[in-house]
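Backbone-to-sequence.
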């Protein structure tokens, strides 16, 4: 209050100081002076001279211009300066040396200088690039600006562009023809074209030149080289072009370049390659796996595997027909077919990569050629199996035999006449079982199991029945051995009898074989028959003399060399040999009257005893043929180190007559099957035209048959009044109930 009083009651005054800001003024000629300094620097860089000013001062000058909104003007001035320099440099390349390599070196030098200069300029004008260029959406970076200017003037300098592209193509052509070229030079110039956006112009001309080059070279090589070497040449060229892409071409060029190579080297010559080379390669396939694999891979590139598949089918059919149709090869045909199949399976995996289409082609080809001779392959396969199961084949042990039978089953699947195989297999199985010639019961059952799996139980019912008969026969013989009838004979006879009781329906039909059974055996037969019929009333036993065999004790040799031997012979041979117990010499007529055999069978049996390698009896006069006037003597002089001697048995030898009879039986069975099929179809359809009936029969029948054969059976059924022809339409059949 005292203060207010002193001042008369007024508050003190406040002083306000205000500073007026004035916009700083750029020095006069600031922009021009700064640009002059920068231009001097740019000129020095373009002329490859040292820059006298420090880069820091130059950078600061660019920054100042940009800060004071002079960026646009600076950019335009710099672009004009660079463009003028680029134009002068490219103009300097016009009308330069005609040597492509020297010209390309000059072009590379010009490009390298441009890149280095623009890199230096960009580092000086970096502030401009980072501010004005970024803020202006329609302005490209300094580096991009340099590329655009370079491209524009290169396109305007037609001579430079033309010579650059031509020079590059020349160097690549030289490299393809074997010359050494500067790959680094080519690589750098192609990168230049890529950077300038001109690579597509080069690529078009390059692909066109490549197409022309390989078109001409392929035609020349096909004339000069065989197919394996031509394929090696193609493989090498593909590798070279792949390396070329990796070294200096743009990666995007690979696909169109490879397409050109495939078209000119492969696609245009597929037919020539396959026709000229495939069959010769297959002729030496074991040594040519790599070549076949190469052909598969290369032709697969141009979608031409169908050509190889067709050629493979043709080769297999041609080779197979030559094998099957040649009757002189029948002895080894199955072995040859197995080897051929094994080779093709190996090629399928190693050369053709297990291609399923190729596998189907092989299967179809085998089915065609193996049935050229309709029934013979089936017969030969059955005989081959017989040889293996008798232990005289290729299978050295059970494992190998099993593998071999699996391979045989593959051939079995291809044959159409499976009923022919069944007939011969059944006949041979009967001989193996009855004559004790089977090498392995397990192998026998394994084979039947394979057939059952392949064809069903109806195919193997009779075969399994044969084994069942053998087992039942063993039980019967055990019971017979313990019977009183057998016991009463033991003291009277000096012989043993082993009998197999066979069910007629299971076993092959055997014709009656007359034989006067020797007294020593007749009593045994009568005793067993009495025993068996007492156990199985209503049954009838028919003795099959042609299947009998015996072991005969014989004293052979003279003086000190006289020894006891065991002769393994057939029942026929046994009956003849026992006659010599009462006489040292017998005439043909005496033997014939005594044994009661058919003349043909008698002569064959006498030949096996008197004319073979083992001569138990001798014939007078000597010779290989047996005649009615011949006389026979027991051969006391026969000597052998072996105690057990196997005399060649005619039972094991397959005769043509037997083969023909088996085949005839098959044909007869087929007729019954055809008749049954016709009746079955007509009973269901009542009325059917001839073409439709034939078509239905082909679907039902599982063996090869011709329309002519079917027509004969239809005519037969019409004669037997199972069918009749329609009165109005002769080609239509009606079923008669």
């Amino acid at each position: 209050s005292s203060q207010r009083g002193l001042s008369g009651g007024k508050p003190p005054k406040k002083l306000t100081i205000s500073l007026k800001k004035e916009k700083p003024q750029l020095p006069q000629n600031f922009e021009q002076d700064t640009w002059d300094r920068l231009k001097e620097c740019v000129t020095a860089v373009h002329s490859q001279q040292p820059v006298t000013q420090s880069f820091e001062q130059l950078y600061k000058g660019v920054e100042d211009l940009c800060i004071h909104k002079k960026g646009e003007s600076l950019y335009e001035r710099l672009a004009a300066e660079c463009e003028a320099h680029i134009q002068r440099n490219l103009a300097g390349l016009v009308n330069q040396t005609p040597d492509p390599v020297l010209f390309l070196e000059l072009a590379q030098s010009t490009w390298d200088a441009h890149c280095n200069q623009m890199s230096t300029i960009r580092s000086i004008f970096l502030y401009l690039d980072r501010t004005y260029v970024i803020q202006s959406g329609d302005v490209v970076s300094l580096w991009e600006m340099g590329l655009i200017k370079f491209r524009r003037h290169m396109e305007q300098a037609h001579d430079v562009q033309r010579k650059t592209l031509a020079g590059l193509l020349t160097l690549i052509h030289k490299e393809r023809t074997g010359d050494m070229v500067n790959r680094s030079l080519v690589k750098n110039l192609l990168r230049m074209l890529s950077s300038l956006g001109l690579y597509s112009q080069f690529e078009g001309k390059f692909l066109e030149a490549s197409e022309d080059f390989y078109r001409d070279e392929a035609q020349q090589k096909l004339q000069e080289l065989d197919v394996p070497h031509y394929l090696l040449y193609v493989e090498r060229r593909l590798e070279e072009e792949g390396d070329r892409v990796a070294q200096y071409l743009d990666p995007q060029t690979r696909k169109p370049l490879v397409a050109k190579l495939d078209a000119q080297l492969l696609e245009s010559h597929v037919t020539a390659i396959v026709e000229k080379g495939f069959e010769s390669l297959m002729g030496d396939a074991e040594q040519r796996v790599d070549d076949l694999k190469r052909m598969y891979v290369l032709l697969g590139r141009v979608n031409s595997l169908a050509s190889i598949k067709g050629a493979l089918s043709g080769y297999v059919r041609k080779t197979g027909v030559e094998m099957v149709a040649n009757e002189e090869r029948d002895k080894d045909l199955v072995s040859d077919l197995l080897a051929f199949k094994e080779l093709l399976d190996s090629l399928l995996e190693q050369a053709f990569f297990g291609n399923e289409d190729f596998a189907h082609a092989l299967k179809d080809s085998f089915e065609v050629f193996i049935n050229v001779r309709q029934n013979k392959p089936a017969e030969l396969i059955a005989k081959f199996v017989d040889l293996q199961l008798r232990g005289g084949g290729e299978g050295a042990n059970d494992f190998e035999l099993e593998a071999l039978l699996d391979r045989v089953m593959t051939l079995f699947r291809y044959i159409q006449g499976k009923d022919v195989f069944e007939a011969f297999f059944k006949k041979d199985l009967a001989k193996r079982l009855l004559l004790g010639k089977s090498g392995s019961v397990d192998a026998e059952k394994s084979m039947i199991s394979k057939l059952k799996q392949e064809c069903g139980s109806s195919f193997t019912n009779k075969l399994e029945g044969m084994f069942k008969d053998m087992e039942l026969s063993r039980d019967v013989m055990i019971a017979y051995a313990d019977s009183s009838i057998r016991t009463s004979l033991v003291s009277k006879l000096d012989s043993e009898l082993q009998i197999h009781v066979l069910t007629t329906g299971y076993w092959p039909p055997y014709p009656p074989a007359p034989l006067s059974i020797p007294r020593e055996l007749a009593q045994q037969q009568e005793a067993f028959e009495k025993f068996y019929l007492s156990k199985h009333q209503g049954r009838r036993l028919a003795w099959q003399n042609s299947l009998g065999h015996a072991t005969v004790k014989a004293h052979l040799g003279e003086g000190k060399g006289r020894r006891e031997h065991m002769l393994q012979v057939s029942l026929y041979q046994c009956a003849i040999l026992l006659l010599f117990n009462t006489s040292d010499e017998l005439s043909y007529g005496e033997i014939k009257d005594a044994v009661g055999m058919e003349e043909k069978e008698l002569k064959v049996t006498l030949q096996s005893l008197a004319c073979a390698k083992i001569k138990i009896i001798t014939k007078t006069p000597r010779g290989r043929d047996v005649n009615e006037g011949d006389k026979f003597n027991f051969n006391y002089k026969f000597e052998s180190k072996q105690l057990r001697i196997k005399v060649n048995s005619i039972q094991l030898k397959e005769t043509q007559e037997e083969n023909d009879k088996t085949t005839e039986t098959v044909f007869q069975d087929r007729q019954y099957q055809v008749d049954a099929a016709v009746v079955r179809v007509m009973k269901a359809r009542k009325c059917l035209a001839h073409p439709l009936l034939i078509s239905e029969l082909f679907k039902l029948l599982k063996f090869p048959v011709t329309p002519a054969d079917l027509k004969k059976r239809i005519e037969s059924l019409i004669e037997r009044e199972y069918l009749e022809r329609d009165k109005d339409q002769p080609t239509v059949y009606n079923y008669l109930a």
